[in-house]
Amino acid sequence: MDVSRIYVDTSVFGGCFDPELEVESKRFFDLVRAGRITTLVSDVVVEELERAPDRVRKLIEDLPTEVLERAPVDGDADRLARAYVEWGVVPERSWNDARHVAAASRSRADAIASWNFRDIVSPQRIRGFNAMNLTFGYGLVVILSPHGISRATEELR
């Protein structure tokens, strides 16, 4: 069975310390530690985690290196993120969210895990991300909450 390559945005790390999201966030990372999921992280995630509380930052440090893969935020990813903003998929205030999706799309992630329902995990936004991805020659992007990804991963057993 193939291991899913899932781009993980910063909200999933923070979710481990949110009473409403804690159980599902920890369940997701248990699947990562079990080798069922490879996590893709970008410099955007690293930068955001640098500003996070120590307990959140420690989560990525404690993940085994073999389950981590870097998703580059290069010129191509930035151009794609800029298109998301210019075409109104996300507002300018959501620049880092656009960069998360662009890095995942550029890296051809199997899916994106996020708890950000306002700016990422939204049917309207997902349609917009996919329209821009197809325009720029990238594939469709699947965006789910960690709960959705964990359920799908567990059902593949």
What would a concise description of this structure say?
The chain has 157 residues and is α/β, with parallel strands linked by helices. The chain has eight helices and five strands, in the order βααβααβααβαβα.
Structure write-up:
It is a single chain. This protein is α/β, with parallel strands linked by helices and 157 residues long. It has one domain: 5'-nuclease (Rossmann fold). It contains eight helices and five strands. It has helices at residues 10-15, 22-33, 43-50, 54-61, 75-86, 95-106, 123-135, 146-155, and strands at 4-8, 37-42, 68-71, 111-113, 143-144. The chain has a five-stranded parallel sheet. β4 (111-113), α7 (123-135) and β5 form a beta-alpha-beta unit. α2 (22-33) crosses α8 and α5 (75-86) crosses α6. The longest helix is centred in the last third of the chain and has 13 residues, at 123-135. The chain is globular, with a radius of gyration of 15 Å. The mean pLDDT is 95.
Report the top-level CATH class: Alpha Beta
Indicate the CATH architecture.
Answer: 3-Layer(aba) Sandwich
Tell me the span between the first and last alpha carbons: 9 Å
By CATH, the superfamily comes out as: 5'-nuclease
Q: What's the overall geometry?
A: globular
Name the average pLDDT. 95
Give the total of beta strands: 5
Q: From N to C, what is the helix and strand string?
A: EHHEHHEHHEHEH
Radius of gyration, in Å, reads: 15 Å
> Which structural class fits the helix and strand makeup?
alpha/beta
By CATH, the topology is Rossmann fold
Q: Compute the number of structural domains.
A: 1
Major sheet description: 5 strands, parallel
Strand order, largest beta sheet: 3-2-1-4-5
Helix content: 40-55%
